[in-house]
């Protein structure tokens, strides 16, 4: 990746994106390796990785389930949707299932207010999700529907 992308400080974001694309998160060992083989320090790389919300320093599931909790979604029942996912998956908001299949996240806004409440599984949006639809979404993901 370093050879393909470059070693200059301006390549910090593309390098971190490439690492995350490969591993779904940025292992600390990758930061150490990049620093040792480029013009960037571990401190700079870690600073970039923690500043931008797109980067993750902890492993995530194969599928990321994001429940919007913006105003429209909150009013339309997002708390109940998150509770349903927590019960069905056996995790709390922000956690990853033990099998590594799913990460559940509450987010401030997905930009689909007229479709509230909204859930995104990776990049696929589901609209007007209630508790029943949340349970059905898990069944569908598990291959049951």
| CATH overall fold name of the largest domain | Glutaredoxin
Helix content: 40-55%
Percentage beta strand: 5-15%
Number of domains: 2
Overall mean pLDDT stands at 94
Distance between the termini: 39 Å
Q: From the coordinates shown, what is the CATH architecture of the largest domain?
A: 3-Layer(aba) Sandwich
CATH superfamily of the largest domain: Glutaredoxin
The biggest sheet amounts to: 4 strands, mixed
Order of helices and strands: HHHHEHHEEEH
Structural category: alpha+beta
Radius of gyration: 18 Å
Structure in words:
By secondary structure, the protein is of the alpha+beta class. The chain folds into 2 domains: 2-51, no CATH class; 63-141, Glutaredoxin, CATH 3.40.30.10. The chain is 44% helix and 12% strand. The protein contains 7 helices and 4 strands, in the order ααααβααβββα. It has a 4-stranded mixed sheet, with helices on one face. The longest helix has 12 residues, at 12-23. The radius of gyration is 18 Å and the shape is elongated. The mean pLDDT is 94.
Question: What layout of secondary structure does this protein have?
Answer:
Elements: H1 2-5, H2 12-23, H3 28-37, H4 42-51, E1 63-68, H5 71-75, H6 78-89, E2 102-107, E3 119-121, E4 124-126, H7 131-141
Parallel strand pairs: 1-2
Antiparallel strand pairs: 1-3, 3-4
Helix pairs in contact: 6-7
């Amino acid at each position: 990746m370093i050879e393909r992308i470059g070693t200059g400080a301006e390549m910090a974001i593309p390098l971190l994106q490439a690492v995350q694309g490969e591993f779904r998160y940025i292992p600390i060992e990758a930061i150490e390796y990049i620093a040792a083989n480029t013009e960037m320090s571990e401190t700079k790389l870690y600073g970039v990785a923690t500043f931008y919300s797109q980067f993750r320093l902890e492993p995530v599931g194969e599928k990321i389930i994001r429940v919007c909790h913006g105003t429209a979604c909150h009013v339309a029942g997002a708390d109940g949707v998150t509770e349903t996912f927590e019960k069905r998956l056996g995790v709390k908001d922000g956690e990853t299932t033990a099998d590594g299949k799913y990460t559940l996240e509450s987010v401030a806004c997905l930009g689909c207010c007229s479709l509230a409440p909204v859930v995104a599984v990776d990049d696929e949006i589901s609209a007007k999700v209630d508790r029943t639809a949340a349970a059905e979404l898990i069944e569908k993901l598990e291959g049951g529907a």
